[in-house]
């Protein structure tokens, strides 16, 4: 059963050669951790170590199907506000 103080992320890593790798991870903690963009970015570097060697963007897909770039805490909070359910989907 999902807890109120954790969020499950589903991440799509789109490599430059056209392959997509999908992983899930959970972040436990209060809102200040879950909505901390730098924390999420560092978590992505842990989950996908090959990101350490490249410049990358983090995006999420909104209800209209547009890919929205995440660059800071405010963008992340807006994404959480607009995404349905406990599972958050982000794209690289």
From TrEMBL:
Domain of life the protein comes from: Eukaryota
Domain (PB1) ranges: 40-85
Protein name according to UniProt: Zinc finger, ZZ type
